[in-house]
Amino acid sequence: MYEEAKIQRTPEELAQLLSQAPATCLVPELLEIARNPLPARELPGARLVAETLAPFLADAAHIPHLPYTLYREFQRTGERRGYQTPYQEKRAKMVALAVQLLLGDTSRRELLQDYLWSTCEETNWVIPAHETREIDLTSAATGFSLAEIIVGLGEQLSDEVVARVRAEIERRIFEPYLARHDSLNWFHGHNNWNGVCNSAVAATFLHLEQDTGRLARALSLALEGLEVFLATAFEYEGSSTEGTSYWQYGLSNLIAFSEMLRLRTAGAIDLLALPRLKDIAHYPTRTMLSVGRYANFADCEEVVAFNPGLFGRMAERTGVPALKEVLAEGAPLLRETNWGRFHKMWRALAWWDGQRPQAITIGDTWARDVGLVRLAATLPNGAPVVLAAKAGHNAENHNHNDVGSFILHVDGESLLCEPGRGLYSRDYFSPRRYENIFASSFGHSVPVVAGQLQAPGREREGHITGFASGRRRFVKIDMLKAYDFPDAETIEREISLDWAAGTITIEDSFLFDKTSQPIEEAFVTWQEVTVEGATARILGERHVLELEITSPRAAEFGLTVLSAESEANAKPTPLKRLTIVTPPHKITRFTIVGRILPRQ
Asked: Is residue 475 classed exposed, middle or buried when 0-12, 13-18 and 19+ CB atoms within 10 A define those classes?
């Protein structure tokens, strides 16, 4: 646990701060746009937000219906999409209408009020998959968005609608948070839930709570929870085991809340100025593979679209300008989790200056706190190549059993990949999680040892034992403890990248104490694959990876196309699994050499 981010304050300390600080507007940019929308229409962020929300405006007259049968689908079958898709669509349409009104178009103000009223009529803002929690990610975000809609646009809305929104936030968010925060498993949680929920609830209190004592108590609770978040959801160097997409999600509400709290306390509490936040801000610069693409171990996505308002502000306030590289020219902006969140969309509109770096720097890094290495080079033909490999352990947040897994990323595409998340369902977040190939080691580029996949658990870990830059860049990983096989003495992987020769070499070593055991090597990819004996060709759009088995002799590649498994997990293309199987031996060594060639 990181011990230096001490941010908690007592209610008494906070009440004194709040009473001494001059009353100020917490969202000055929002209110300025509401008063004078014409100049805001020309902002770079306004164009980005308008383009993002245009599809939802086109069909806004149809308010998505959330019936009982869809609500109970998760309970019946474990399926989440049936209810969550219209739930999120409804919020995205509401936000699109709110932004339209914010920018001065009053033509659909009554329709926006229908959406606000309809949202207040929902039986539950908590999605069915989270029903055991009185407040969840989506209900906290709904409350925050509704609060900022009525703060920013309240003068244009019916008093009755504004009063109804306030009453529902009081009933669904404020009262349970103050009375039963200890029953919320995310309150002191060690992952993104803590940052998302505590920040959203605290920001909503800042907007709407007029009783200083009650506000001070709520802020004290939120800071208590967020202190745990900053200490435990990130490792000692600031890295996240959840990956870059969850790193963004967990921090997005905290950035907004931090700026509001700084204004409300006249700078006395400034979370983004903490050294801990500076450490955390460096993380995406260590995981970037190419513009807009990141090493996607665990349930992380490879393509991550950042909110330019929020993370441009974080780069400025933490003093980490390299963080702005996530907004580089060509990178996607505003991922789906922003669309139904008014508090995120108007900040993208108002806080972004439109600046996008034209070049990014991707170099060799070793994030020791999460056991992640990135090796980067340029091939003789000028193509950038990045190798990302991880050690880590098999009880990480959003864990996959993937100790020793790696990505080969060439000129913007992954030729050897991480498969990413499985379909979120009841089973996926249950003891049956590792029956899903996207979470088990079966779906990753790691070996099957003596017929066994990697085992889950904190003790199932790997260690990076070698790392070097230069013409021959390499990483060496001890994978022994990732397998629950007592007779194994050595399970070790070394991956080297020779940029001048345009080659990657994978060397795996296995030693057993008393018995002879079979090994199955495996490498996974989304690309098309051809196999001929000891040679396999992975066909990317611009480059080909030609793999050759040089040891053991006479070994050949096998190929399995995981069509059914990929379809069951809503993947647009099937994952392919290249394998090499050896008979039982006490000592087995594999050497596979890959040549990276331009596709003709």
From this structure: buried
Q: Which residues pair with 407 in a beta bridge?
A: 388
Token digits of residue 395: 């009880």
> Rounded to an integer, what distance in angstroms lies between the CA atom of residue 433 and that of residue 440?
8
Residue with tokens 């906070």: 14
The DSSP letter of residue 109 is: H
Q: Are 370 and 332 in contact (CB under 8 A)?
A: no
Tokens representing 498 are 């020779």
Q: How do 503-512 and 587-598 pair as beta strands?
A: antiparallel
Distance CA 347, CA 332 (A): 17
328-384 per-position pLDDT tens digit: 999 999 988 889 999 999 999 999 999 999 989 899 999 999 999 999 999 998 999
254 vs 161, 183, 247, 357, 533, CA distance in Å?
A: 28, 22, 11, 25, 54
Model-wide pTM > 0.85: yes
Q: To the nearest 5 percent, what fractions of the chain are helix, strand and coil?
A: 40, 20, 35
The letter for the amino acid at 130 is H
- Tell the residue number behind the tokens 């019946």, with chain if given: 76
Q: How far apart are CA 131 and CA 73, in angstroms?
A: 12
Instruction: Judge contact between 258 and 203, C-beta under 8 A.
Output: no
User: Taking a C-beta distance cutoff of 8 angstroms, is the pair 304, 244 a contact?
Assistant: yes
The DSSP letter of residue 129 is G
- Find residue 367's DSSP bridge partners: 372
Beta bridge partners of 590: 508
Q: Is 164 helix (H, G, I), strand (E, B) or coil?
A: helix
At 343, the amino acid letter reads H
- Report the C-alpha gap between 311 and 89 in whole angstroms: 24
Angle at 57 between CA 64 and CA 116, to 5 degrees: 50
Token readout for 50 is: 């308008």
Q: Which helix (H) or strand (E) holds 228?
A: helix 212-232
Write a three-state SS string for 286-319.
HHEEECCEECCCCCCCCECCECHHHHHHHHHHHC
Distance of alpha carbon 20 from alpha carbon 401, whole angstroms: 52
**Model confidence pLDDT, tens digit, residues 87-133:** 999 999 999 999 999 999 999 999 999 999 999 999 999 999 999 99
Integer CA distances (angstroms), 451 to 147, 289, 542, 574, in order: 55, 33, 36, 24
